[in-house]
């Protein structure tokens, strides 16, 4: 029993004390004699939800603080430690004004993975635009000239001044959500050093996949074929452009960006910026 002058009693538990980066932590609030709550997750993010769910995208130890406040404005806090470990896969987070995406970079394309990670660590992509979007096809970005570009600027030719040799892998195909390297027309099919696109795509049939196998020599593994039939994509690009990753969360964000109104040159009327960071 609490007396009339007693302070609130904060209490909470987490569904796990150790979590892999990008996984969620659910907090159970067991506070008593409180009417409002303030959470500090130790990574600069906060919440006022009674029972929040939070995600950490960097490994480390985080002190979570819950402050419970009663109807008279009296507050009391309690803390708990959450340990976040690095992911076993190479993951990136793509933030946009239309939502965020989580993508996996493939170990099967090491040169593309290493280059993309290097650029992300240099904050190369921060504030660049998705400068070319085609609904039912793809969204493209990574041109350094798009940062702060005027509305009439011609975009799509910028880059870091080098190319990446093509790395074609049959198990990495242009299914919806595929992260692939843009390129200029060159006989080696070498990739742009920085520009990339994410497949939006359309429905795909078995006949189309059979035709692509016959014309390019690609041999789709059964799981890739099933994925194409399930979510669609752009198989006509396979063996022509290097796929080096896959969006594993946020396919709806691709749809939103792809559906934006565009100007000539397929540039969105309203700038769609990006910020890309490593999950580690």
UniProtKB/TrEMBL annotation:
CDD domains documented for this protein: cyclophilin, PKD
Family per record: Belongs to the cyclophilin-type PPIase family.
InterPro entries in UniProt: Cyclophilin-like_dom_sf, Cyclophilin-type_PPIase_CS, Cyclophilin-type_PPIase_dom, Cyclophilin_A-like, Ig-like_fold, PKD/Chitinase_dom, PKD_dom, PKD_dom_sf
Keywords, in A-Z order: Isomerase, Rotamase
Zinc keyword on record: no
Domain PKD: from-to ranges: 7-85
Catalytic activity from the UniProt record: [protein]-peptidylproline (omega=180) = [protein]-peptidylproline (omega=0)
EC number: 5.2.1.8
Source lineage: Bacteria, Pseudomonadati, Bacteroidota, Saprospiria, Saprospirales
Keyword Phosphoprotein: no
Gene Ontology biological-process annotations: protein folding
PROSITE patterns: CSA_PPIASE_1 (PS00170), CSA_PPIASE_2 (PS50072), PKD (PS50093)
Pfam families named among the record's database cross-references: PKD_4, Pro_isomerase
Protein name as catalogued: Peptidyl-prolyl cis-trans isomerase
